[in-house]
Amino acid sequence: MRDLQHNVRLANADLTGVNLSGVNLQGLDLNHTILCQADLTGTQLSKANLRGANLSQAILNWASLDYAILQDADLCDAQLNKANLDRAILVGANLSDAQLCGTNLSKGDLERVNLSRANLSQANLSWTNLNSANLSGTNLNWANLSWADLDSTNLEEAYTRMTNITGVRLPLGIFLVRKHFRRSSTITEGQTAKTV
After folding, report:
1. What is the H or E stretch that residue 175 is in?
2. 91: phi > 0 → left, psi -120 to 50 → alpha, else beta; which?
3. Euclidean distance between CA atoms 173 and 51, whole angstroms
4. pLDDT beyond 70 at 102
5. How far apart are CA 113 and CA 75, in angstroms?
């Protein structure tokens, strides 16, 4: 893996279309950096500050973004397949139409995130905060949502075949009806979803 010197200033830079695949950018300040259509395949971005960055249509497959700050970042149409975003902060980020197949988002903060029409099949979202997130039209087939917080989350027309929802926190009174679940359940105040 190639290292980029940590004294390099990349905050607010325009790096549209750049190839940084396999580069070590761990802990760098990439605040408001423009990385549209950039190739960041397998890049090490752990603990990087990508607050407000534009990563639309970027390729981040197999990238390490654990503990990264992506608050208010634009990742629409980005490819993040098999990426690691464990404990990442994505509050208010836009991931509409993004590809996140098999991605690890466990224990992340995704409050108010836009994941509309995103592909999260086989993704790990266990213990993730998805409060007030937009998951409309999202593919959650085979995803792990165990113990996630889905309070005030928009799940309209989301695909949930074989989705693990053990212990998930849902809005008061929501009624779960899924073709592929064995039974359905109504969540009342103070409850979490049980095996459904």
Report:
1. strand 175-176
2. beta
3. 35
4. yes
5. 11
In which element (H, E) is residue 23 found?
A: strand 23-24
Place of tokens 């980029």: 4
DSSP 3-state of 59: strand
What value does the mean pLDDT take over residues 41-57? 98
What confidence score (pLDDT) does residue 169 get? Answer: 86
Q: What is the pTM of this model?
A: 0.86
CB 108 within 8 A of CB 84: no
Extract the tokens encoding 116: 């509309």
> For the segment 127-178, what is each residue's pLDDT rounded down to a tens digit?
999 999 999 999 999 999 999 999 999 999 999 999 999 989 876 655 454 4
Looking at residue 2, the DSSP 8-state letter turns out to be E
Coil/strand/helix, residue 64: strand
